[in-house]
Amino acid sequence: MIGIHLIAVGNLKEAYLRAGAAEYQKRLGGLCACTVTEVPEARLPRNPSEREIAAALAAEGQRILSAVPKGAFLVPLCVEGVQITSEQLAQRLETAALSGKHQAAFVIGSSFGLSPEVKVAGDFRLSMSRMTLPHQLCRLVLLEQLYRAGTILTGRKYHK
Q1: pLDDT value at position 134?
Q2: DSSP structural state of residue 125
Q3: CB neighbour burial string for 90-118, b if at least 16 within 10 angstroms, e if fewer
Q4: CA-CA distances (angstroms) from residue 92 to 13, 53, 81, 122, 154?
Q5: Are 32 and 3 in contact (CB under 8 A)?
Q6: How far apart are CA 136 and CA 138, in angstroms?
Q7: Whole-angstrom Cα distance, residue 43 to residue 56?
Q8: Which of 80, 88, 137, 156 could cross-link 151 (Cys pair, CB 3.0–4.6 Å)?
């Protein structure tokens, strides 16, 4: 399986989310190289204007794009992305590998989302659900799904 890079805006605050994310990152490590990079969240006032939000997203977007490994298959997670099954995620990773990509970078934005620049740079936009998820919980769910994709690709029994 190709190397996995998860780039997230902000850090995990809750102990149960940190523990769950660490568990799936450890499991993924048995299947591929897996790194998590946290980029700082832009500071905003309590009730930010649209202009302030746009400026924050642009600053975060620059930090995100600078953290993406060169030539990686870039997957921003966003509401306008496509929803796929676990099997389809595994297939996308396999197809990326067969096309010469050695790494995949998945990006989780802040509570305000991602900059348009990050979305446009993506090879594939992914939506985890039609429901709204906290971006910190999304990290745990994504790591679990990446582990599941890896077990699908390697024929392990985890996936049912």
Answers
A1: 86
A2: -
A3: bebbeebbeeebebbbbbbbbebbbbeeb
A4: 31, 32, 14, 13, 14
A5: yes
A6: 5
A7: 7
A8: 156
Tokens in use for 105? Answer: 């970078």
Task: Kindly list the strands in the beta sheet with 126-126, ordered across the sheet, starting from the edge strand earlier in the chain.
Answer: 34-39, 3-9, 103-108, 73-82, 126-126
109-137: per-residue pLDDT in tens? 998 999 999 999 999 999 999 888 888 89
- For 139, the token pair is 């990290």
The two tokens of residue 147 are: 């582990």
**Residue 131 buriedness (CB in 10 A; 0-12 / 13-18 / 19+):** exposed
Structure letter (DSSP) for residue 29:
H
